[in-house]
Amino acid sequence: MMQKVPENDRLEEPSTLPSMKRMAGNTAWNMVGMCAPMVVALFSIPLLIRGLGDDRFGLLALVWMLVGYFSIFDLGLGRALTKMTAECLGRKEQEQIPRLFWTSMTLMTGLGLIGAVLLWFSAPWLALRVLNVPEHLQPETLTAFRVVSFGLPVVVAITGLIGVLEAYQRFKLINLVRIPTGMFTFLGPLAVLPFSTSLSAVVGVLIAGRIAEWLIYFLACLRCVPRLGGLIRFEAARIKGLLCFGGWMTVSMIATPLMIHIDRFLIGAIISVSAVAYYVTPAAIVVKLLIFPRAWVSVLFPAFAANFFVDRLAVAKMFGQGVKFLLAASFPVILAVVAFAPEGLLLWLGPEFSTHSTPVMRWLAAGILVYSLSFLPCALLQGAGRPDITAKVHLAELVAYLVLASVMIHFFGIVGAAMAWFVRGAVDALAMFGLARRFAPESWSQVSRVFRALAAGLVVIIFAVLAPELWMRVLVWLLGAGGFALVSWSYLFTSKEQREVLRVLSAVKARAL
Same domain, yes or no, for 156 and 100? Predict the structure, then answer.
């Protein structure tokens, strides 16, 4: 017989089927959480370069990278914790969550400690041999890397704490913490500069900020899930499931960024390093367009996981809606990038960059439109407990993409690299949707409509590319974006979805006023 949930635990019972209004709000919070630190970085980085000097700033950039990439030491357990916590909520088994939480956090802290020990003992090798660090900076670089090692257990554990809050769909709370702590990544070092330009002092402040972030998230978890404070228990029986799910997630977490960024290295190896500049500049801008799909999917993933085994019809409906809304929201932005790439690059970087980089930017933008749709079936498969499927697809794609990109770069240069990126994105989307079909067959009529709308959108993009004059491309964008909005409204959205969209827009308008 299921126990009655205590009155003081009512915070633990969120709706596992969020409304469209709530999903839109959560996505908006995610986007603000991702974008706000970038805005601060634009203004802070020139000041940091001036204050620290080129060498110290370069080392600080490496520290930022280390802190970011060492979160992989969680071996996918953060995502596993989100998925399994959401499942417990969907099945009304909240009493299982404390055991799951403390088992996961123990594993993640242990993995973080292993990473810390590895970094501590490899720090002399990195600082004195691998990196070409000026001799006068070597002592503080060594100290800085060892300071980072103290923060690794905290960095790894943060992913688990965020995972629990995501399962409870507390995205506003997550981002109210993420925004200031993300800004502190750049503002913290600036605050140190009047007192010291030592890299170890700057890094010490960064790690102190991470420890504060961990504490805030931990207290937020205790507030959101009061049961966590009453039962601290490690369950060895859960280890296999956590590590199995997390291990496959780690494969995808490694393969996916490689496929997004490895083309730059191939260009440098096959053509020249100077050619990389013409490619990496538009690529760096276009990849930022993935912020919205990532923000959207991170909201849907816990909902998929919570409901897949209790209400598959609802999951199929949510999946179909998610794909439709993602395409409808993304297309006007992608079309604008394609249409106005020549003028944008000309104003920003000059005629030479515009000439070389415009076709690259256009191919990559079209690729982003197609590739971003694959995020939804990927999240569905992982939410259904099959991260092995997505991992195997990503591994196969990585091998094929390396071959394709190498050949295309050899024959067509940097434009060939962008074309290969587009092909990879299209293959990824087709593969993921094909594999996800049997997990949500009820959504396939909606997905088929999305594919038809996508094909029409790609035709409009071709017209934007072929239009030689700016006024023609402005006309293509106005007619294309407007026409696509009309198609989305009348062809993709049901009458109920139209009402939900209007409610969301009304809420946005009311807040703006």
Answer: yes
Q: What is the DSSP letter of 367?
A: H
For residue range 345-394, list pLDDT tens digits in order. Answer: 888 888 888 888 899 999 999 999 999 999 999 999 999 989 999 999 99
Q: What is the pTM of this model?
A: 0.88
User: What are the b/e assignments for 87-108, b being 16+ CB within 10 Å?
Assistant: bbbbeeebebbbbbbbbbbbbb
The 3-state secondary structure of 431-478, one letter per residue: HHHHHHHHHCHHHHHHHHHHHHHHHHHHHHHHHHHHCCCHHHHHHHHH
Residue 7 lies in a domain: no
Pull the structure tokens for residue 153.
Answer: 């257990």
Whole-angstrom distance, CA of residue 386 vs CA of residue 9: 31
306: its two tokens: 């919570």
User: Beta-carbon neighbour count of residue 224 at 10 Å?
Assistant: 17
CATH no. for residue 173?
1.10.357
Distance between first and last Cα of the chain: 50
Residue 257 or residue 384, greater confidence = 384
Tokens matching residue 354? 């515009």
DSSP 206: H
* Same domain membership, residue 211 and residue 90: yes
Contact between 487 and 456 under an 8 Å Cβ cutoff? The reply is yes
Average model confidence (pLDDT) across the chain: 87
| Six token digits for residue 311 | 């209400």
The predicted structure's pLDDT at residue 278: 84
Same domain, 108 and 210: yes
pLDDT in tens, 138-166: 888 888 888 888 888 998 999 999 999 99
Q: CA neighbours within 13 Å on the CB side: how many for 422? A: 17
Range of the domain at 401: 247-512
Q: Give the residue ranges of DSSP H helices in 225-290.
A: 239-270, 273-287
Amino acid at 321: Q
Question: Phi and psi for 14 in degrees, rounded to 5?
Answer: -75, 160
Residue ending a domain, choose from 234, 269, 288: 234
What letter would DSSP give residue 131?
S
DSSP string, 151-202: HHHHHHHHHHHHHHHHHTT-HHHHHHHHHHHHHHHHHHHHHHTTT---HHHH
Name residue 458's amino acid.
L
